[in-house]
Amino acid sequence: MDLGDCSKIHDLALRADYEIASKDRDLFFELDAVDHLESFIADCDRRTELAKKRLAETQEEISAEVAAKAEKVHELNEEIGKLLAKAEQLGAEGNVDEAQKVLQEVEKVRSRKREAEEEYRNSMPASSFQQQKLRVCEVCSAYLGLHDNDRRLADHFGGKLHLGFIQIREKLEQLKKTVSEKQEKRNQERLKRREEREREEKMKRRTRSRSRERKRSRSRERRRRRSRSSSRERRRSRTRSRDRERKRRHRSRSRSKGRRRSPRDRSRDRSSKHKSSRDRSSRDRSRDRDRKEKSSSERRQESMNGKSESRRSEEREAGEI
What we know:
The protein is mainly alpha-helical. It contains eight helices and two strands. The protein has a two-stranded antiparallel ribbon with strand order 1-2. A hairpin with a 6-residue loop joins strand 1 (134-136) and strand 2.
């Protein structure tokens, strides 16, 4: 096809470097190649469909049986052309024996083609048989004639256009396979990453839940301790209040007993009180007497001491004189 010069750099060393680098990480330039080749294939398929529509409009309509016989002749022509192109390629490479075997297969296919053409000729009138019946190549969208000779078929099936589209279609299938494998691998890696993230999140959640449980347990322990201390204080207060109540009851009982005494007990208490008061008064009197005696004795001693001191002073004065 007349597409002009390619703007890309065709270098085997760069291709080898890319293949080595693509092993370490996916660069996904295959996606660009797939898009580029699919544009060629889409254009070829579009031209094939248009050519088929034109042939259906221009050629005479034939029955299904005659169309099947013509299709058989076209298939045999295609097979002969492919075998001739293969034989020429093998001869150019130097494989003469293989080329001779392929030519023998070509002769067999030619005999089958003659039989198919004879059946096709007998199934339709001579006037319509002489017309050129065309067919569109499904690979490169070129026109093929029903009565093309072997040279024409060999030139078509061994030509650069036909072989180029075969290579493009094969390369496209290969690239699609590699891209699908890489995408599947990438999806698996993503799934693994997601699983790892989910595991990490689960671990974080577990640690958070454990920390929360620990905090809750600590708060529960604190509450229990507080409740225990409060219960102890309540018990103590209750015991204190009970003791107070008991003391009050005891006092009230003792008072009520004192009020309920008999007159004899009261008289006894009065007599005992009088006796105790008498004893106290007698004791106080004795104490007063002792104090008075002590004070009088002290006065006497002081007077005696004063007299002795006066005598001593007189004696001192007399001695001095």
